[in-house]
Amino acid sequence: MATIRKRGDTWRAEVRRQGINRSASFPTKARAQAWATRTEADILDGKTGNIPNKLLSDLLRRYGNEVSIHKRSKRWEQNRIDYLIKDTFTNVPLPELAPEHFAGWRDRRLREVSAATILRDWNLLSAAINVAINEWGWLKENPLKPVARPKTPLPRTRRITQDEIDRLLYALGYSYDQSPETVTARVGAAMLFAIETAMRIGEICSIQKNHIHPRHIHIPKTKNGFPRDVPLSTEARRILEQLPTETGGPVFGITTSQTDALFRKAKARALIDDLHFHDTRREALTRLAKKLDVMALAKVSGHRDLRILQSVYYAPTIDYLADKLD
């Protein structure tokens, strides 16, 4: 039988069925009753047996240690996991975990951050829970599945202007007629190179000398796990030839974290708002679309889903499209 009690500002639901005891706290009586009804039904259907008495935070930590560690995005996933486990909802024991806990987390976060940020955390949570269900036997069903996802925001259309490029290069100390000796100046070179090639910053920072060929760069492993060859324009080859030859390791001699930090500082000095380094990829692909058809453009960018290429990365002005009609 289920028992619902008010404790302070919360409602405590307790379920005892077939020798199984479950309890959870909720902000409203309605949520407590809904959880109790569903939990009773799950016990009767045999869906709650053998669930370990571990916390959601334990699940996330194990996912980080055993799954995220093998991904190229492991640093970013681990940062998200570290942030998620600071939230009290990850202290809920797995046998008590219910959609209401995730709905409460979603509503709190929507008051703090954008829907896009929540959706990135959402995808991580869902992936971790599915591994726990399918491989570890820690859960029977995904309690996140019934919860309504925040509405997906409209894709960014921000493009960088030539004036902004000039101001950023000045702030970064990059010169077209001098070798970029400092780390800051090489960030400027990387920005120009990104606009020429549509390469991601992680790909640019990983370029080794043996990846460079006369007319293209070979990327052995990209974000989606597939290799890619990127053609080099005359300007892209100029930037590569301008780099210091004595730099050991990656040819640009910078890391993604250095690029991110120095690019942010340069934006502040240049008085530029709402611009990300990754916006150079949209700018590059929009420029390349003037010369390449969509299939060739996807070959350069590495997109396997043309819908993403169209909606997120290709952003021509309406005046340009009107000119194409004349």
Characteristic key phrases:
326 residues, mainly alpha, DNA polymerase, domain 1, 3 domains, two-stranded antiparallel ribbon, elongated
Number of helices: 14
Question: Which shape, going by the Cα principal axes?
Answer: elongated
Calculate the mean pLDDT score and round it. Answer: 87
Q: What fraction, in percent, of the residue positions are helical?
A: 40-55%
Strand content: 5-15%
What is the fold-level CATH name, i.e. the topology of the largest domain?
hpI Integrase, Chain A
How many E-type strands? 5
pLDDT below 50 for ≥5 consecutive residues: which ranges?
none
End-to-end Cα distance: 75 Å
SS content category: mainly alpha
Major β-sheet annotation: 3 strands, antiparallel
In N-to-C order, the SSE pattern is EEEHHHHHHHHEEHHHHHH
CATH architecture of the largest domain: Orthogonal Bundle
- The figure for the number of domains is 3
CA-based gyration radius: 25 Å
Instruction: Let me know the CATH homologous superfamily of the largest domain.
Output: Intergrase catalytic core
**Biggest sheet, strands in spatial order?**
1-2-3
Output the CATH class name of the largest domain.
Answer: Mainly Alpha
Please give a structural write-up.
It is a single chain. This protein has helices at 29-44, 56-66, 74-84, 99-110, 115-136, 162-172, 183-197, 201-205, 234-242, 256-269, 279-288, 294-301, 306-313, 318-325, and strands at residues 2-7, 10-17, 20-26, 216-219, 228-231. The protein is mainly alpha-helical. It has three domains: 1-49; 51-153, DNA polymerase, domain 1 (Orthogonal Bundle); 162-325, hpI Integrase, Chain A (Orthogonal Bundle). Strands 1-2-3 form a three-stranded antiparallel sheet, covered by helices on one side. Strand 1 and strand 2 form a beta hairpin. Helix 2 runs antiparallel to helix 3 (74-84), helix 6 crosses helix 10 (256-269) and helix 7 packs across helix 10 (256-269). The chain starts with a strand and ends with a helix. The model has no long low-confidence stretch (mean pLDDT 87).
